[in-house]
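I have been asked to look over a protein record a colleague put together. Thanks in advance; the entry in question is below.
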Amino acid sequence: MNEKIWFVEFPTYQYNEDVKALAAERGLTVIDASFDDGTGEKDVPKLTKIGEDDGKKGKKDSK
């Protein structure tokens, strides 16, 4: 069995993104990062914590 594992710092409700939905779209199994043994997938979605600046807010387009 070749499971694609995504280690995520729990609890997952601390993120702006829907972790379960992102994992399902990409065929990933979400496991608490405290169990990370280095075998997880490297190309995983980027997550931002609620209240954390994602670098996009407040910036104006330079057109």
The chain has a mean pLDDT of 89. Residues 15 and 49 are 4 Å apart (CA to CA). The chain has one helix and two strands. The first strand starts at residue 5 and ends at 8.
